Amino acid sequence: MQALRVAHDHGDVEGTLLHQALHGGLLRGGGTGVGRTLAPLACAVKPSHCSLGAAFRGRSSMNMNRRSWVKGAALVGSGFLSRIDRVAAAQKAPVLRDVLRAEATGASEKLFVPPRPGEEGPPAPATDDRLSLDWNKATVKRLKDTLASRDIQAFVVRDPLNIMYVTGYWHTTTERPQAAFMNKDDADPWFMYPGLDRDSVTTWWFGGGRMYFDFLHGEGAFPHEGKVQQGETVDLFRFMLEGIKDHKVQGTRIGIDGELYPAELAKAKDVLPGVEWVNVADTLMKMRWVKTPEELALWRRAYVYFDRAHGFARDYILTHGTDVTDYEVGQATTTWINDILYSELDLKNGAIHHGVASGIGIGCRVGPLTAFPHPNQPLFNRIGRNMALQVEGGAAIGGYGGENYRAYIIADGSGSFDPHMRKLWEVSQHTCDMQVDLSAEGRTCSDVAYEIHKYQVAQGVQKYIYHRPGHGEGVEGHQSPYISLGDHTMLRKNMCFSEEPGLYDPEHGCGFNWSDTVVVGSKSGYRMSRVPYTKEWCWLKL
Predict the structure, then answer these.
(1) What is the rounded distance in angstroms from the CA atom of residue 221 to the CA atom of residue 230?
(2) The overall pTM is greater than 0.70
(3) Right CATH number for 293-540 from 3.90.230.10, 2.60.120.650, 3.60.15.10, 3.90.1150.10?
(4) How large is the average pLDDT for residues 65-92?
Protein backbone atom coordinates (compact mmCIF):
# COMPACT_ATOMS: atom_id res chain seq x y z
CA MET A 1 0.00 0.00 0.00
CA GLN A 2 3.00 2.31 0.38
CA ALA A 3 3.26 2.69 -3.35
CA LEU A 4 -0.43 3.52 -3.55
CA ARG A 5 -0.09 6.17 -0.87
CA VAL A 6 2.78 7.75 -2.77
CA ALA A 7 0.68 7.74 -5.89
CA HIS A 8 -2.18 9.43 -4.05
CA ASP A 9 0.07 12.06 -2.51
CA HIS A 10 1.58 13.02 -5.85
CA GLY A 11 -1.52 12.51 -8.00
CA ASP A 12 0.45 10.13 -10.27
CA VAL A 13 0.30 6.35 -10.69
CA GLU A 14 3.33 6.06 -12.99
CA GLY A 15 5.88 3.78 -11.31
CA THR A 16 3.43 2.29 -8.80
CA LEU A 17 2.85 -1.42 -8.28
CA LEU A 18 -0.61 -1.05 -9.77
CA HIS A 19 0.83 0.50 -12.89
CA GLN A 20 3.41 -2.25 -13.17
CA ALA A 21 0.72 -4.89 -12.98
CA LEU A 22 -1.45 -3.18 -15.57
CA HIS A 23 1.40 -2.37 -17.95
CA GLY A 24 3.44 -5.56 -17.58
CA GLY A 25 4.07 -8.25 -20.14
CA LEU A 26 0.56 -9.62 -19.63
CA LEU A 27 -0.82 -6.71 -21.63
CA ARG A 28 1.37 -7.43 -24.63
CA GLY A 29 -0.47 -9.48 -27.19
CA GLY A 30 -3.70 -10.03 -25.26
CA GLY A 31 -2.47 -12.32 -22.51
CA THR A 32 -4.37 -13.44 -19.42
CA GLY A 33 -4.07 -12.30 -15.83
CA VAL A 34 -4.54 -9.02 -13.96
CA GLY A 35 -3.67 -6.77 -16.88
CA ARG A 36 -6.19 -8.26 -19.27
CA THR A 37 -8.91 -8.65 -16.64
CA LEU A 38 -8.63 -5.03 -15.51
CA ALA A 39 -8.82 -3.50 -18.98
CA PRO A 40 -12.55 -2.67 -18.61
CA LEU A 41 -11.90 -1.24 -15.14
CA ALA A 42 -9.20 1.06 -16.49
CA CYS A 43 -11.47 2.40 -19.21
CA ALA A 44 -14.22 2.92 -16.65
CA VAL A 45 -11.87 5.05 -14.58
CA LYS A 46 -11.21 7.28 -17.58
CA PRO A 47 -13.93 6.68 -20.19
CA SER A 48 -12.38 9.07 -22.69
CA HIS A 49 -9.45 6.67 -23.12
CA CYS A 50 -9.70 3.17 -24.59
CA SER A 51 -6.46 1.69 -23.30
CA LEU A 52 -4.81 1.10 -20.01
CA GLY A 53 -1.78 3.05 -21.13
CA ALA A 54 -3.94 6.10 -21.71
CA ALA A 55 -6.05 5.62 -18.59
CA PHE A 56 -2.99 5.66 -16.33
CA ARG A 57 -0.77 8.23 -17.98
CA GLY A 58 -0.10 10.73 -15.14
CA ARG A 59 -1.43 14.05 -13.78
CA SER A 60 -2.54 15.47 -17.10
CA SER A 61 -4.64 12.46 -17.97
CA MET A 62 -5.83 11.18 -14.63
CA ASN A 63 -8.42 13.83 -13.65
CA MET A 64 -9.64 11.61 -10.85
CA ASN A 65 -11.02 13.30 -7.79
CA ARG A 66 -10.06 12.24 -4.31
CA ARG A 67 -13.25 10.21 -3.82
CA SER A 68 -12.65 8.14 -6.99
CA TRP A 69 -9.10 7.38 -6.01
CA VAL A 70 -9.97 6.41 -2.48
CA LYS A 71 -12.63 4.03 -3.80
CA GLY A 72 -10.11 2.46 -6.13
CA ALA A 73 -7.54 2.13 -3.37
CA ALA A 74 -10.14 0.54 -1.12
CA LEU A 75 -10.84 -2.08 -3.78
CA VAL A 76 -7.16 -2.89 -3.98
CA GLY A 77 -6.77 -2.96 -0.23
CA SER A 78 -9.70 -5.30 0.18
CA GLY A 79 -7.99 -7.95 -1.96
CA PHE A 80 -9.97 -7.13 -5.10
CA LEU A 81 -6.93 -7.47 -7.36
CA SER A 82 -5.85 -10.78 -5.89
CA ARG A 83 -9.35 -12.18 -6.31
CA ILE A 84 -9.50 -11.05 -9.94
CA ASP A 85 -6.09 -12.53 -10.59
CA ARG A 86 -7.22 -15.86 -9.16
CA VAL A 87 -10.23 -15.81 -11.49
CA ALA A 88 -7.99 -14.95 -14.44
CA ALA A 89 -5.56 -17.72 -13.56
CA ALA A 90 -8.42 -20.21 -13.55
CA GLN A 91 -9.33 -19.30 -17.12
CA LYS A 92 -7.96 -21.63 -19.80
CA ALA A 93 -5.26 -20.30 -22.06
CA PRO A 94 -5.99 -20.74 -25.78
CA VAL A 95 -4.77 -24.05 -27.19
CA LEU A 96 -1.91 -24.01 -29.68
CA ARG A 97 -4.21 -25.08 -32.52
CA ASP A 98 -6.37 -21.98 -32.09
CA VAL A 99 -3.38 -19.68 -31.76
CA LEU A 100 -1.93 -20.95 -35.03
CA ARG A 101 -5.25 -20.89 -36.85
CA ALA A 102 -5.57 -17.23 -35.88
CA GLU A 103 -2.17 -16.68 -37.52
CA ALA A 104 -3.36 -18.11 -40.84
CA THR A 105 -4.39 -15.16 -42.99
CA GLY A 106 -4.21 -17.06 -46.28
CA ALA A 107 -2.73 -13.97 -47.93
CA SER A 108 0.11 -15.79 -49.67
CA GLU A 109 -2.21 -18.48 -51.03
CA LYS A 110 -3.68 -15.82 -53.33
CA LEU A 111 -0.35 -15.83 -55.20
CA PHE A 112 -0.40 -19.54 -56.08
CA VAL A 113 0.16 -20.30 -59.76
CA PRO A 114 -3.22 -20.85 -61.46
CA PRO A 115 -3.83 -23.67 -63.97
CA ARG A 116 -2.70 -22.86 -67.51
CA PRO A 117 -4.52 -23.94 -70.67
CA GLY A 118 -2.93 -26.97 -72.30
CA GLU A 119 -0.64 -27.89 -69.41
CA GLU A 120 0.01 -31.60 -68.94
CA GLY A 121 -0.40 -31.46 -65.17
CA PRO A 122 -0.61 -31.61 -62.27
CA PRO A 123 -3.63 -33.93 -62.12
CA ALA A 124 -6.69 -33.38 -59.98
CA PRO A 125 -6.00 -34.45 -56.40
CA ALA A 126 -7.25 -37.83 -55.23
CA THR A 127 -10.19 -38.02 -52.88
CA ASP A 128 -8.90 -41.18 -51.18
CA ASP A 129 -6.28 -41.23 -48.43
CA ARG A 130 -4.35 -44.20 -49.78
CA LEU A 131 -4.16 -46.54 -52.75
CA SER A 132 -6.94 -49.09 -52.77
CA LEU A 133 -6.64 -52.85 -52.43
CA ASP A 134 -7.86 -53.09 -56.03
CA TRP A 135 -4.82 -51.03 -57.06
CA ASN A 136 -2.52 -53.47 -55.26
CA LYS A 137 -4.20 -56.42 -56.94
CA ALA A 138 -3.81 -54.78 -60.35
CA THR A 139 -0.14 -54.08 -59.60
CA VAL A 140 0.46 -57.70 -58.63
CA LYS A 141 -1.19 -58.81 -61.88
CA ARG A 142 1.16 -56.55 -63.86
CA LEU A 143 4.12 -58.02 -62.01
CA LYS A 144 2.95 -61.61 -62.49
CA ASP A 145 2.38 -61.04 -66.21
CA THR A 146 5.85 -59.56 -66.61
CA LEU A 147 7.45 -62.44 -64.72
CA ALA A 148 5.44 -65.05 -66.61
CA SER A 149 6.98 -63.80 -69.85
CA ARG A 150 10.31 -64.93 -68.33
CA ASP A 151 8.84 -68.28 -67.20
CA ILE A 152 8.80 -67.20 -63.56
CA GLN A 153 5.70 -68.55 -61.83
CA ALA A 154 6.29 -67.27 -58.29
CA PHE A 155 7.96 -64.36 -56.52
CA VAL A 156 9.12 -63.35 -53.06
CA VAL A 157 9.84 -59.78 -51.99
CA ARG A 158 11.84 -58.91 -48.88
CA ASP A 159 12.57 -55.21 -49.36
CA PRO A 160 9.98 -53.36 -47.21
CA LEU A 161 9.44 -50.83 -50.01
CA ASN A 162 8.55 -53.62 -52.43
CA ILE A 163 6.30 -55.33 -49.88
CA MET A 164 4.38 -52.09 -49.41
CA TYR A 165 4.24 -51.36 -53.13
CA VAL A 166 3.02 -54.79 -54.14
CA THR A 167 0.70 -55.73 -51.28
CA GLY A 168 -0.29 -52.43 -49.64
CA TYR A 169 0.81 -53.75 -46.25
CA TRP A 170 2.24 -50.58 -44.70
CA HIS A 171 4.42 -51.23 -41.70
CA THR A 172 7.26 -49.80 -39.67
CA THR A 173 10.61 -51.11 -40.82
CA THR A 174 13.13 -52.28 -38.24
CA GLU A 175 15.73 -55.05 -37.98
CA ARG A 176 12.86 -57.56 -38.04
CA PRO A 177 12.79 -59.26 -41.47
CA GLN A 178 9.53 -59.66 -43.35
CA ALA A 179 8.63 -61.19 -46.70
CA ALA A 180 5.69 -61.64 -49.05
CA PHE A 181 5.35 -64.60 -51.42
CA MET A 182 2.89 -65.37 -54.21
CA ASN A 183 2.49 -68.03 -56.85
CA LYS A 184 1.09 -67.05 -60.22
CA ASP A 185 -2.25 -68.64 -59.35
CA ASP A 186 -2.42 -67.43 -55.74
CA ALA A 187 -5.23 -64.97 -55.09
CA ASP A 188 -3.68 -63.62 -51.88
CA PRO A 189 -0.11 -63.15 -50.63
CA TRP A 190 1.62 -65.34 -48.05
CA PHE A 191 3.75 -63.56 -45.45
CA MET A 192 6.57 -64.15 -43.03
CA TYR A 193 6.18 -61.55 -40.29
CA PRO A 194 7.03 -60.71 -36.66
CA GLY A 195 4.52 -61.00 -33.86
CA LEU A 196 4.31 -57.28 -33.18
CA ASP A 197 2.80 -56.73 -36.67
CA ARG A 198 0.31 -59.60 -36.53
CA ASP A 199 -2.71 -57.29 -36.41
CA SER A 200 -1.49 -55.15 -39.31
CA VAL A 201 -0.53 -57.93 -41.69
CA THR A 202 -3.53 -60.19 -41.15
CA THR A 203 -6.21 -57.51 -41.58
CA TRP A 204 -5.30 -56.02 -44.97
CA TRP A 205 -4.61 -58.56 -47.76
CA PHE A 206 -3.62 -61.87 -46.23
CA GLY A 207 -3.50 -65.38 -47.60
CA GLY A 208 -1.70 -67.06 -44.75
CA GLY A 209 1.80 -66.89 -43.41
CA ARG A 210 4.35 -67.87 -40.83
CA MET A 211 4.91 -65.75 -37.74
CA TYR A 212 7.97 -65.58 -35.54
CA PHE A 213 7.71 -63.91 -32.15
CA ASP A 214 10.50 -61.36 -32.43
CA PHE A 215 14.08 -60.81 -33.48
CA LEU A 216 16.02 -62.79 -32.40
CA HIS A 217 13.44 -65.56 -32.35
CA GLY A 218 13.87 -68.46 -29.93
CA GLU A 219 12.61 -71.80 -31.23
CA GLY A 220 9.12 -72.56 -29.95
CA ALA A 221 8.93 -69.30 -27.97
CA PHE A 222 5.59 -67.50 -28.30
CA PRO A 223 4.93 -65.66 -25.01
CA HIS A 224 1.63 -64.26 -26.30
CA GLU A 225 0.43 -67.87 -26.51
CA GLY A 226 1.78 -68.69 -23.07
CA LYS A 227 4.86 -70.45 -24.49
CA VAL A 228 7.84 -68.94 -22.69
CA GLN A 229 11.07 -70.80 -23.30
CA GLN A 230 14.71 -70.09 -24.16
CA GLY A 231 14.81 -71.94 -27.45
CA GLU A 232 17.68 -72.10 -29.90
CA THR A 233 18.08 -69.00 -32.07
CA VAL A 234 16.08 -69.49 -35.26
CA ASP A 235 17.61 -68.79 -38.67
CA LEU A 236 14.84 -66.60 -40.06
CA PHE A 237 15.91 -66.98 -43.70
CA ARG A 238 15.58 -70.74 -43.41
CA PHE A 239 12.37 -70.15 -41.42
CA MET A 240 10.98 -68.26 -44.42
CA LEU A 241 12.07 -70.94 -46.89
CA GLU A 242 10.41 -73.67 -44.85
CA GLY A 243 7.19 -71.65 -44.78
CA ILE A 244 7.26 -71.21 -48.55
CA LYS A 245 7.88 -74.94 -48.95
CA ASP A 246 4.84 -75.72 -46.80
CA HIS A 247 2.78 -73.24 -48.81
CA LYS A 248 3.90 -74.97 -52.06
CA VAL A 249 5.77 -73.42 -54.98
CA GLN A 250 4.36 -73.14 -58.48
CA GLY A 251 6.95 -73.81 -61.18
CA THR A 252 10.69 -74.13 -60.75
CA ARG A 253 11.76 -70.48 -60.89
CA ILE A 254 11.15 -67.94 -58.12
CA GLY A 255 11.71 -64.25 -58.68
CA ILE A 256 13.31 -62.46 -55.73
CA ASP A 257 14.00 -58.76 -55.25
CA GLY A 258 17.77 -58.96 -54.81
CA GLU A 259 20.83 -61.14 -55.05
CA LEU A 260 21.20 -64.01 -52.60
CA TYR A 261 24.43 -64.32 -50.67
CA PRO A 262 26.25 -67.65 -51.20
CA ALA A 263 25.25 -68.79 -47.70
CA GLU A 264 21.61 -67.96 -48.43
CA LEU A 265 21.74 -69.72 -51.78
CA ALA A 266 23.07 -72.86 -50.09
CA LYS A 267 20.17 -72.83 -47.63
CA ALA A 268 17.69 -72.24 -50.47
CA LYS A 269 19.02 -75.26 -52.37
CA ASP A 270 18.79 -77.35 -49.22
CA VAL A 271 15.18 -76.45 -48.39
CA LEU A 272 13.88 -76.01 -51.95
CA PRO A 273 16.04 -78.21 -54.20
CA GLY A 274 15.56 -77.80 -57.90
CA VAL A 275 14.31 -74.22 -57.63
CA GLU A 276 16.13 -71.48 -59.53
CA TRP A 277 16.24 -68.04 -57.91
CA VAL A 278 16.06 -65.11 -60.33
CA ASN A 279 16.83 -61.53 -59.31
CA VAL A 280 13.86 -59.38 -60.36
CA ALA A 281 14.75 -56.27 -58.33
CA ASP A 282 15.28 -54.29 -61.54
CA THR A 283 11.82 -55.27 -62.81
CA LEU A 284 10.16 -54.00 -59.64
CA MET A 285 12.17 -50.78 -59.59
CA LYS A 286 11.25 -49.95 -63.18
CA MET A 287 7.59 -50.49 -62.30
CA ARG A 288 7.98 -48.10 -59.38
CA TRP A 289 9.73 -45.50 -61.54
CA VAL A 290 6.69 -44.87 -63.73
CA LYS A 291 3.80 -43.70 -61.60
CA THR A 292 0.23 -44.70 -62.35
CA PRO A 293 -2.56 -42.09 -62.53
CA GLU A 294 -3.72 -43.17 -59.07
CA GLU A 295 -0.27 -42.60 -57.59
CA LEU A 296 0.03 -39.17 -59.19
CA ALA A 297 -3.41 -38.11 -57.98
CA LEU A 298 -2.52 -39.11 -54.42
CA TRP A 299 0.79 -37.27 -54.82
CA ARG A 300 -1.04 -34.14 -55.90
CA ARG A 301 -3.37 -34.36 -52.91
CA ALA A 302 -0.34 -34.26 -50.62
CA TYR A 303 0.88 -31.15 -52.43
CA VAL A 304 -2.40 -29.31 -51.94
CA TYR A 305 -1.63 -29.32 -48.23
CA PHE A 306 2.08 -28.84 -48.88
CA ASP A 307 1.38 -25.65 -50.82
CA ARG A 308 -0.81 -24.31 -48.04
CA ALA A 309 2.03 -24.95 -45.61
CA HIS A 310 4.35 -22.86 -47.76
CA GLY A 311 1.79 -20.08 -47.82
CA PHE A 312 1.48 -20.17 -44.03
CA ALA A 313 5.26 -20.11 -43.58
CA ARG A 314 5.63 -17.10 -45.86
CA ASP A 315 2.86 -15.22 -44.05
CA TYR A 316 4.42 -16.11 -40.69
CA ILE A 317 7.77 -14.70 -41.80
CA LEU A 318 6.18 -11.52 -43.14
CA THR A 319 4.16 -11.08 -39.94
CA HIS A 320 6.88 -11.72 -37.37
CA GLY A 321 9.98 -10.82 -39.34
CA THR A 322 13.16 -10.60 -37.31
CA ASP A 323 11.40 -11.45 -34.04
CA VAL A 324 11.48 -15.20 -34.73
CA THR A 325 13.91 -17.98 -35.56
CA ASP A 326 13.87 -20.25 -38.56
CA TYR A 327 13.13 -23.09 -36.14
CA GLU A 328 9.93 -21.39 -34.97
CA VAL A 329 8.76 -20.89 -38.54
CA GLY A 330 9.23 -24.59 -39.26
CA GLN A 331 7.60 -25.82 -36.07
CA ALA A 332 4.63 -23.46 -36.25
CA THR A 333 3.98 -24.37 -39.88
CA THR A 334 4.33 -28.10 -39.29
CA THR A 335 1.90 -28.03 -36.38
CA TRP A 336 -0.62 -25.87 -38.24
CA ILE A 337 -0.72 -27.89 -41.45
CA ASN A 338 -0.76 -31.33 -39.82
CA ASP A 339 -3.68 -30.29 -37.63
CA ILE A 340 -5.58 -29.50 -40.83
CA LEU A 341 -4.35 -32.58 -42.69
CA TYR A 342 -5.21 -35.08 -39.97
CA SER A 343 -8.56 -33.40 -39.36
CA GLU A 344 -9.49 -33.95 -43.00
CA LEU A 345 -8.12 -37.46 -43.53
CA ASP A 346 -10.48 -40.33 -42.82
CA LEU A 347 -8.65 -41.62 -39.76
CA LYS A 348 -11.62 -43.53 -38.33
CA ASN A 349 -10.67 -42.48 -34.82
CA GLY A 350 -7.30 -44.19 -35.03
CA ALA A 351 -8.38 -47.37 -36.84
CA ILE A 352 -5.63 -49.48 -38.37
CA HIS A 353 -4.87 -49.02 -42.11
CA HIS A 354 -6.25 -45.45 -42.12
CA GLY A 355 -4.00 -42.47 -42.73
CA VAL A 356 -1.00 -44.67 -43.47
CA ALA A 357 2.30 -42.93 -44.26
CA SER A 358 0.74 -39.47 -44.16
CA GLY A 359 2.24 -36.31 -42.78
CA ILE A 360 4.00 -33.06 -43.57
CA GLY A 361 7.26 -31.77 -42.15
CA ILE A 362 8.34 -28.18 -42.74
CA GLY A 363 11.77 -26.78 -42.00
CA CYS A 364 13.26 -23.35 -42.41
CA ARG A 365 16.88 -22.25 -42.50
CA VAL A 366 18.30 -18.74 -42.67
CA GLY A 367 21.69 -17.09 -43.18
CA PRO A 368 24.79 -19.33 -43.02
CA LEU A 369 22.61 -22.43 -42.70
CA THR A 370 21.52 -21.97 -46.32
CA ALA A 371 25.14 -22.20 -47.51
CA PHE A 372 25.39 -25.96 -47.00
CA PRO A 373 23.41 -28.56 -48.99
CA HIS A 374 23.10 -30.84 -45.94
CA PRO A 375 23.99 -28.79 -42.85
CA ASN A 376 25.02 -30.77 -39.79
CA GLN A 377 24.13 -27.91 -37.47
CA PRO A 378 20.63 -27.36 -36.01
CA LEU A 379 18.24 -25.20 -37.98
CA PHE A 380 18.08 -22.58 -35.26
CA ASN A 381 19.01 -19.06 -36.27
CA ARG A 382 17.22 -15.76 -35.86
CA ILE A 383 15.83 -14.35 -39.08
CA GLY A 384 17.60 -11.16 -40.07
CA ARG A 385 17.78 -8.68 -42.89
CA ASN A 386 20.17 -9.14 -45.81
CA MET A 387 20.01 -12.93 -45.46
CA ALA A 388 19.19 -15.91 -47.64
CA LEU A 389 16.32 -18.02 -46.34
CA GLN A 390 14.89 -21.37 -47.36
CA VAL A 391 11.52 -22.94 -46.56
CA GLU A 392 11.74 -26.67 -47.14
CA GLY A 393 10.15 -29.96 -46.28
CA GLY A 394 8.52 -33.17 -47.33
CA ALA A 395 4.89 -34.26 -47.55
CA ALA A 396 3.06 -37.51 -48.26
CA ILE A 397 -0.42 -38.95 -48.15
CA GLY A 398 -0.64 -42.73 -48.28
CA GLY A 399 3.12 -42.76 -48.81
CA TYR A 400 3.02 -40.60 -51.93
CA GLY A 401 4.54 -37.15 -52.12
CA GLY A 402 7.93 -35.52 -52.20
CA GLU A 403 9.93 -32.38 -51.59
CA ASN A 404 8.98 -28.73 -51.91
CA TYR A 405 11.54 -25.99 -51.23
CA ARG A 406 11.57 -22.28 -52.00
CA ALA A 407 14.61 -20.00 -51.78
CA TYR A 408 14.20 -16.45 -50.48
CA ILE A 409 16.26 -13.28 -50.26
CA ILE A 410 15.56 -10.88 -47.40
CA ALA A 411 16.28 -7.25 -48.20
CA ASP A 412 18.69 -5.17 -46.13
CA GLY A 413 17.62 -2.30 -43.89
CA SER A 414 17.31 0.07 -46.85
CA GLY A 415 15.09 -2.35 -48.76
CA SER A 416 17.81 -3.36 -51.23
CA PHE A 417 18.75 -6.90 -52.24
CA ASP A 418 22.39 -7.97 -52.21
CA PRO A 419 23.77 -8.20 -55.80
CA HIS A 420 25.68 -11.44 -55.16
CA MET A 421 22.64 -13.15 -53.66
CA ARG A 422 20.52 -11.85 -56.54
CA LYS A 423 22.89 -13.46 -59.03
CA LEU A 424 22.90 -16.87 -57.35
CA TRP A 425 19.13 -16.76 -56.86
CA GLU A 426 18.42 -15.83 -60.49
CA VAL A 427 20.72 -18.48 -61.96
CA SER A 428 19.40 -21.24 -59.71
CA GLN A 429 15.79 -20.23 -60.33
CA HIS A 430 16.30 -20.27 -64.10
CA THR A 431 17.84 -23.73 -64.01
CA CYS A 432 14.73 -24.96 -62.19
CA ASP A 433 12.65 -23.81 -65.13
CA MET A 434 15.14 -25.45 -67.47
CA GLN A 435 14.67 -28.79 -65.75
CA VAL A 436 10.91 -28.61 -66.16
CA ASP A 437 11.23 -27.73 -69.85
CA LEU A 438 13.78 -30.49 -70.47
CA SER A 439 11.82 -33.22 -68.66
CA ALA A 440 10.24 -34.77 -71.73
CA GLU A 441 10.06 -38.49 -72.48
CA GLY A 442 12.81 -39.65 -74.81
CA ARG A 443 15.58 -37.55 -73.29
CA THR A 444 18.05 -39.04 -70.85
CA CYS A 445 18.78 -38.03 -67.27
CA SER A 446 22.29 -37.11 -68.38
CA ASP A 447 20.92 -34.80 -71.11
CA VAL A 448 19.01 -32.76 -68.53
CA ALA A 449 21.96 -32.57 -66.14
CA TYR A 450 24.33 -31.57 -68.96
CA GLU A 451 22.23 -28.61 -70.08
CA ILE A 452 21.78 -27.34 -66.53
CA HIS A 453 25.44 -27.62 -65.55
CA LYS A 454 26.49 -26.09 -68.87
CA TYR A 455 24.30 -23.05 -68.18
CA GLN A 456 25.60 -22.71 -64.61
CA VAL A 457 29.19 -22.64 -65.85
CA ALA A 458 28.32 -20.16 -68.60
CA GLN A 459 26.94 -17.85 -65.92
CA GLY A 460 30.22 -18.02 -64.00
CA VAL A 461 28.83 -19.70 -60.89
CA GLN A 462 30.70 -23.00 -61.16
CA LYS A 463 32.40 -22.37 -57.82
CA TYR A 464 29.01 -22.67 -56.11
CA ILE A 465 27.91 -25.98 -57.69
CA TYR A 466 27.89 -28.80 -55.15
CA HIS A 467 25.66 -31.56 -56.55
CA ARG A 468 23.56 -32.96 -59.38
CA PRO A 469 20.31 -31.16 -60.29
CA GLY A 470 17.94 -33.85 -59.01
CA HIS A 471 17.08 -37.42 -58.09
CA GLY A 472 14.18 -39.75 -58.72
CA GLU A 473 11.30 -39.49 -56.27
CA GLY A 474 9.40 -42.39 -54.75
CA VAL A 475 7.90 -43.66 -51.54
CA GLU A 476 11.41 -43.90 -50.08
CA GLY A 477 12.27 -40.30 -50.98
CA HIS A 478 15.47 -40.58 -53.03
CA GLN A 479 14.84 -43.11 -55.79
CA SER A 480 16.75 -43.97 -58.93
CA PRO A 481 17.30 -42.81 -61.60
CA TYR A 482 19.19 -39.55 -61.09
CA ILE A 483 19.43 -36.27 -62.99
CA SER A 484 23.17 -36.75 -63.11
CA LEU A 485 25.83 -36.58 -65.80
CA GLY A 486 26.61 -40.27 -65.38
CA ASP A 487 23.03 -41.59 -65.50
CA HIS A 488 21.96 -42.33 -69.07
CA THR A 489 18.52 -43.70 -68.20
CA MET A 490 15.85 -42.75 -70.71
CA LEU A 491 13.08 -40.57 -69.29
CA ARG A 492 9.60 -42.05 -69.49
CA LYS A 493 6.32 -40.27 -69.04
CA ASN A 494 5.13 -40.08 -65.41
CA MET A 495 8.56 -40.56 -63.89
CA CYS A 496 9.02 -38.20 -60.93
CA PHE A 497 12.13 -36.24 -59.97
CA SER A 498 13.22 -33.71 -57.40
CA GLU A 499 14.23 -30.28 -58.71
CA GLU A 500 17.28 -28.92 -56.91
CA PRO A 501 19.98 -27.29 -59.02
CA GLY A 502 21.16 -25.38 -55.96
CA LEU A 503 24.10 -22.99 -55.56
CA TYR A 504 25.95 -22.51 -52.28
CA ASP A 505 28.46 -19.95 -50.99
CA PRO A 506 29.75 -20.76 -47.48
CA GLU A 507 32.22 -17.87 -47.68
CA HIS A 508 29.41 -15.33 -47.80
CA GLY A 509 26.94 -17.37 -45.75
CA CYS A 510 24.26 -17.80 -48.38
CA GLY A 511 22.86 -20.46 -50.63
CA PHE A 512 19.80 -21.10 -52.77
CA ASN A 513 18.28 -24.51 -53.27
CA TRP A 514 14.85 -25.40 -54.54
CA SER A 515 12.80 -28.50 -54.92
CA ASP A 516 9.47 -29.73 -56.15
CA THR A 517 8.27 -32.87 -57.85
CA VAL A 518 8.86 -32.58 -61.58
CA VAL A 519 6.81 -35.13 -63.50
CA VAL A 520 8.06 -36.16 -66.94
CA GLY A 521 5.60 -35.28 -69.69
CA SER A 522 5.25 -35.77 -73.42
CA LYS A 523 6.66 -32.40 -74.52
CA SER A 524 7.92 -31.03 -71.21
CA GLY A 525 7.53 -31.75 -67.54
CA TYR A 526 5.25 -30.18 -64.98
CA ARG A 527 5.45 -29.42 -61.27
CA MET A 528 3.21 -30.86 -58.59
CA SER A 529 3.31 -27.62 -56.58
CA ARG A 530 1.50 -24.36 -57.30
CA VAL A 531 3.84 -22.30 -55.09
CA PRO A 532 5.49 -19.59 -57.25
CA TYR A 533 9.17 -19.31 -58.12
CA THR A 534 8.83 -15.56 -58.64
CA LYS A 535 10.60 -12.56 -57.12
CA GLU A 536 7.21 -11.40 -55.87
CA TRP A 537 7.02 -14.56 -53.75
CA CYS A 538 10.68 -15.01 -52.83
CA TRP A 539 12.15 -11.51 -52.40
CA LEU A 540 10.97 -10.22 -49.06
CA LYS A 541 11.22 -6.91 -47.25
CA LEU A 542 10.75 -7.28 -43.50
Answers:
(1) 7
(2) yes
(3) 3.90.230.10
(4) 56
